[in-house]
Amino acid sequence: MSISGARGTVTMHDVAARAGVSVKTVSNVVNDYPHIRPATREKVQRAIDDLGYKMNLSARSLRQGRTGIIGLALPELSLPYFAELADSVIRAAEARGVVVLIEQTGADRQHELDVLTSDRRQLTDGLIFSPLELGPDDADALKVDYPLVVLGERIFGGDWDHVTMNNVDAARAATQHLIDQGRRRIAVIGAHAGETMGSAALRVLGYQAALAANGIPLDPDLIVEGGLWHRATGAECVAHLVDSGVEFDAIFGLNDALALGALHALHARDITVPKDVAMIGFDDIEDASYTSPTLSSISPGREEIAQEAVDLLLARIAGGEDPYRRVIADFTVMPRESSGA
Amino acid sequence: MSISGARGTVTMHDVAARAGVSVKTVSNVVNDYPHIRPATREKVQRAIDDLGYKMNLSARSLRQGRTGIIGLALPELSLPYFAELADSVIRAAEARGVVVLIEQTGADRQHELDVLTSDRRQLTDGLIFSPLELGPDDADALKVDYPLVVLGERIFGGDWDHVTMNNVDAARAATQHLIDQGRRRIAVIGAHAGETMGSAALRVLGYQAALAANGIPLDPDLIVEGGLWHRATGAECVAHLVDSGVEFDAIFGLNDALALGALHALHARDITVPKDVAMIGFDDIEDASYTSPTLSSISPGREEIAQEAVDLLLARIAGGEDPYRRVIADFTVMPRESSGA
DNA sequence: CTGTTAGCGCGTTCAA
DNA sequence: TTGAACGCGCTAACAG
């Protein structure tokens, strides 16, 4: 019998010996197996407490073939949207008894591919994957042999669940919101040239649809490219717009970080929001409620996305064989000061 | 021999059989054991590739008593400072070949205690712990039998490493910066009554020291309580200040989130920053560079903190027996528009 | 309701 | 330089 204080030294056998039962009984107790005599349970529990026994989770994982860990791969936690998403995912996972291992891909294509085949996948029972660079052409890379839930754009052709939002409709609603405030020269910042299926492309599509629906001509000069959706990029886009001399009376930031950077750049140029330029973002990060002026945005239902993703993943891990699903989270327009609503 | 494509089915035995060697040799190859004949190594590597072998990390963990996972316990990722810290910790860990399991304590005292004794500690080789509620009285709870690095305030009396910053000096510098701009009625928001050793208490101490050093009388009405250091709290503090009728010409937000909320509340009341009220925050989150006006702050050397914490933890995990260390990260005053510097 | 036993896949002796 | 055998701590069969 080992009664050392060293870590991981106390095993089920020690507990069993002290309680005068078999290891199986100890196992039953710690796993809340239903049919145990109260006296036995208590005896075992006392032995556990006395010895300070903690189950060796590696051994359990080896035996069960499951770790109780799910992976979450996202671009980076410094981006507020992903930090808030991770927060929600961790909460949802905790409520369901699993923990979360976060991997940052840095919005790097190779890194996104690596994460799918990394050794670490052996450590997780499944993966919630939020790709930024991968697209429909990479469907093959996503054909993995473990449970996978893809967040964001839909990538066709494989055995995985999706949790997405309707980017086109949401972007259309955002643009319509600006139009409803009487704006007609609406710039959009953060576009990705050449992309056809990513968030950027879909949101630009929604933007164009809204213009068309209102008979507003599309001016290509109002569509500003911007690679990484960081605040700095938003500021650069505004610099570009202003320097180019294009007239504009509103800006649709393809995400909030871009919009925050844009707000900053406008302010630096003494361009008043919303008087001179109205603005709306996308994601409804917490910041949006605290900027000056507060930032109108699209709330993508982050909490719902996180919970659905965790639920879908756990169902697959549990062996669910249902057809692969696509969950489309609801969005909401959040009018705030920046759009003058 | 199993050549199924099912997950985790290929073992070292399968690889050994295909390569015509023993498992020991395969193990040597995958662990980069130095003395292997090139031909053997190549043979084994080919078998690994052919079979798509991935090592079972649970088995390795069981055998070695180490998982290659470190825990990171922090209040919540929705707080930008902690999101950025987590980002840095994950990067530092990745560079050193380990992964990070994040647990959110929600700044709840019981949750902070639980995290220290949770079963999940069996899953991690050590823990980087950033407590908010625990203080010197809880030193006993921190006496754990696994490697531990404590971030933030120093908690005396146990076997663990600290990575802290000089809160008093940094707060003094922040306050001095406001004084240097000619401000004399400096409010501080986010104070915690009754606390003696936490960040709040130490920073208020630095604030008081700066006033004293400049012969400015201390007005208790300028010290505003605020529990959670969220944006909403900052806004409430300003509401309280304004409603109380106290005169003030500057605000020191004990962290940036408070300062952001305060900026928002001032703006809503048409109080101009920095003309009417100068402001400085603490943490230098990315937001601080993008608000309107940009927010002066104290940069706590987040990157340095993260790297030191990971290094210290890994040294302990590796069995380092050096005396427990206290690393004090450097801070920098970041003057921006909000303080009118 | 509880005990016995046989692996899960790996690293690590000890030999050869 | 490589091979054979054992056991890390646990759970799942199967008894009883």
Automatic annotation (TrEMBL), chains A, B:
Q: Which Gene3D superfamilies is this protein grouped with?
A: 3.40.50.2300, lambda repressor-like DNA-binding domains (1.10.260.40)
The HTH lacI-type domain, residue ranges: 10-64
An example of a GO molecular function for this protein is: transcription cis-regulatory region binding
Matching CDD domains, A to Z?
A: HTH_LacI (cd01392), PBP1_LacI_sugar_binding-like (cd06267)
The answer on whether this UniProt entry bears the keyword DNA-binding reads yes
The family database entries (InterPro entries) matched by this protein are listed as: HTH_LacI, LacI/GalR-like_sensor, Lambda_DNA-bd_dom_sf, Peripla_BP_I
Query: Could you tell me the keywords of this UniProt record?
Result: DNA-binding, Transcription, Transcription regulation
Q: Name one Pfam family in it.
A: LacI
> What's this protein's name?
Transcriptional regulator, LacI family
* Organism annotation: Demequina mangrovi
